[in-house]
Specification:
With 236 residues, the protein is an all-alpha fold. It folds into 2 domains: 52 residues, no CATH class; 159 residues, no CATH class. Helices cover 69% and strands 0% of the residues. The longest helix has 44 residues. The two termini are 34 Å apart. The mean pLDDT is 89. The structure holds fe (ii) ion (2 copies). The site of one fe (ii) ion has 6 residues, from helix 5, helix 6 and helix 9.
Length: 236
């Protein structure tokens, strides 16, 4: 752990000050603000969060990695899965609805504005796709991992390799939405609201891309390891 940028002895406030996007990681681990001068280890202990998993995610996000240098040694599957579940709730119940509200405010939704109508339609279809993607993870993948963790004798007929193969990137369509707005939305003098929505869409796109990376390069390897342990033991 020592060669990574953040350590358990670092002050939590320093970590946020050096990279504010880590705020999202904090809230998805259920860590509230107001930690004064407490260290990462102290804040995690106070809120019963697995410190190793928290640091592994923080360092993964910080370094924008595309692999784990070990097989995720020390990363708790339970803790990482609860982080991913909270992220789903954030995207589906908070972030995407907030962007939609802002979008309606920023564009002229009268029936005569065809581009505005198309933008909203495109956004709604996109949000439905994200919901489908995350519902599958919640109901199929995470349910399977929970059964693995309980070491159930009758495991669902599933393997994490199926998820690894079918897991697609969900942020790409947001790039298209951005392009429609940037290239085709009829110009108006006051673009402050529309620019603010575009900023939100850019952030959401980056956040979703990182979410998918954590699933691909952290979650899948640690579940694969768990699968080997549980299923390997079953065979003996
Ligand atoms: Fe996900
Ligand atoms: Fe995903």
């Amino acid at each position: 752990m020592n060669d990574r940028p953040y350590k358990e002895t670092d002050k939590m406030s320093d970590l946020i000050c050096s990279n504010y996007s880590l705020l999202m990681v904090l809230s998805r681990f259920g860590l509230p603000l107001g930690f004064g001068d407490k260290t990462v280890k102290e804040v995690c202990a106070q809120h019963e969060v697995d410190c190793n998993t928290f640091l592994a995610v923080v360092n993964f996000v910080e370094e924008d990695r595309s692999s784990l240098d070990d097989e995720g040694d020390g990363v708790s599957v339970v803790s990482l899965m609860s982080y991913l579940k909270r992220a789903h709730v954030y995207f589906l119940d908070f972030n995407l609805p907030a962007i939609r509200r802002k979008l309606i405010e920023a564009i002229d939704c009268s029936s005569s504005n065809e581009v505005a109508f198309l933008i909203l339609k495109f956004f709604d279809e996109y949000a439905a796709e994200v919901r489908k993607h995350m519902d599958y993870e919640d109901k199929v993948v995470f349910a399977y991992v929970e059964a693995l963790l309980r070491k159930e004798a009758d495991l669902p007929p599933y393997q994490i390799s199926i998820f690894a193969r079918r897991h697609d990137q969900i942020e790409a369509k947001l790039t298209e939405l951005k392009n429609i707005i940037i290239k085709y939305y009829p110009a108006k003098r006051d673009t402050n609201l529309l620019n603010a929505v575009l900023f939100d869409i850019y952030n959401c796109e980056a956040d979703l891309a990182m979410h998918c990376k954590v699933e691909d390069y952290m979650f899948i390897p640690v579940v694969r390891k768990l699968e080997r342990e549980v299923k390997g033991n079953e065979k003996q």
